[in-house]
Write a structure and sequence with these properties.
The protein is built from 10 helices and 13 strands. The chain is globular and about 65 Å long. α1 packs antiparallel against α2. The longest helix has 22 residues, at 2-23. It has a 5-stranded mixed sheet with strand order 2-13-10-3-9. Strands 5-4-7-8 form a 4-stranded antiparallel sheet. It has helices at residues 2-23, 32-48, 88-101, 147-150, 179-191, 200-208, 213-216, 240-249, 264-277, 295-301; strands at residues 72-74, 83-85, 111-117, 120-127, 130-136, 142-144, 168-177, 221-232, 259-261, 285-292, 303-304, 307-308, 311-315. Bound molecules: 8-hydroxy-2-methylquinoline-6-carboxamide (JCF). 8-hydroxy-2-methylquinoline-6-carboxamide binds next to β3 and β8. 8-hydroxy-2-methylquinoline-6-carboxamide is lined by residues 80, 82, 114, 116-117, 121, 174, 226-227, 289, 311.
Length: 324
């Protein structure tokens, strides 16, 4: 039996590494057939020795039975909404307000720039490196417990890839659907005579609101992290950009368009570039998110009402055509 345990642990470790290379680094090192072969080998061993199945095995993504309803979860830290800017002038005002508030100005003010994914904000909690809970943003204070559905999203790791995980780590990010996944889903829904979704965001929302995780597991959902909520038992890097890189290093997918700039001109150029890239990204974005990179400065700037003073969503003009 020790041989079996050793074999099962090796299979789990290998599969987790393959998943990380494929979903987070976007650099698969083995063909899908090899991943599938090992996956089915693990599945067979676990069926033969069910007492050796652990909840975070790569084979345990799809929950057992449908829920009757979603439980409510209270966010220990509120999930913020962002103020919007719709012009360069409004962006400049955002930066000016920051400079006015920071009596002592740092020699250079770094901004972390990201595409603003058009999906749904979720919170995912890892306890001792294991995915234990996930919730929708809801009204920012209370959300719905969608743990079983979040576990079915293939690029979200069930365990953090680190030997000394934080005691608790809350990841916040966006669940979204790619254009190709959306078109494929609607093609299948059409064939099955089921209702079609109007756009990828609605399709993602509908998929996360499924009470039966077996249905969610068939939907092409993706996740990109954009910030850290609660963290305990670990020291974090001092800047937002470095924190995102750290998340990637422990197995959490982040967007690959994120950049760091230290002048407003470069930030405006990033906004323009993302506006051009928008039609070829393969997923919907509705603008960019510009954040003060230094965490200590973020804490000095704080929030006004529910939105941070240190971040702005610089949006694109509303898209005329529907994405159908
Ligand atoms: C603080 C905050 C709130 C909402 C966000 C939303 C997105 C997004 N939709 O991509 C990205 C971010 O960095 C965000 N950051």
């Amino acid at each position: 039996i020790d041989q079996i345990i050793k074999q099962i642990n090796e299979l789990k470790e290998t599969l987790r590494r393959y998943e990380y290379q494929y979903h987070v680094l976007d650099e698969p090192t083995v063909p899908d057939a090899e991943y599938d072969r090992l996956f089915h080998q693990l599945k067979a061993l676990e069926q033969q020795y069910p007492q050796l199945i652990d909840a975070d095995s790569p084979t345990q993504r799809v929950g057992a039975k449908p829920l009757a309803s979603f439980n409510q979860i209270r966010h220990e830290l509120p999930m913020l909404s962002l103020d919007n800017a719709f012009s360069n002038d409004e962006l400049k005002t955002f930066v000016k307000r920051i400079q006015d508030r920071l009596i002592v100005m740092p020699d250079s003010l770094d901004f972390c720039c990201e595409p603003k994914l058009d999906g749904l904000a979720v919170s995912i909690l890892y306890v001792n490196g294991r995915l234990t809970q996930a919730a929708t943003r809801g009204d920012g204070t209370t959300g719905e417990d969608i743990t079983a559905n979040i576990r079915t999203i293939r690029n979200i790791p069930l365990q953090l890839l680190t030997n000394n995980p934080p005691t608790r780590l809350e990841i916040r990010g966006e669940v979204f659907m790619s254009h190709s996944g959306f078109e494929q889903l609607n093609r299948i829904s059409l064939e099955k005579g089921e209702k079609l979704f109007a756009n990828p965001r609605n399709a993602a929302a509908g998929s996360l609101r499924q009470l039966d995780p077996k249905i969610t597991a068939t939907r092409p959902l993706l996740f990109n992290a954009y910030s850290i909520g609660i963290f305990e038992g670990t020291l974090l890097p001092k800047t937002h950009f470095a924190r995102l890189q750290w998340l990637k290093s422990i197995g959490i997918p982040i967007n690959n368009e994120i950049r760091l700039y230290n002048t407003i001109e470069k930030v405006v150029d990033f906004y323009r570039t993302m506006g051009e890239k928008r039609r070829s990204l393969g997923y919907d974005i509705d603008g960019t998110v510009i954040k003060v990179n230094d965490i200590a400065l973020q804490q000095k700037l704080g929030f006004v009402s529910k939105a941070p003073r240190w971040a702005i969503a610089y949006k694109f003009p509303a898209q005329e055509e529907l994405t159908l």
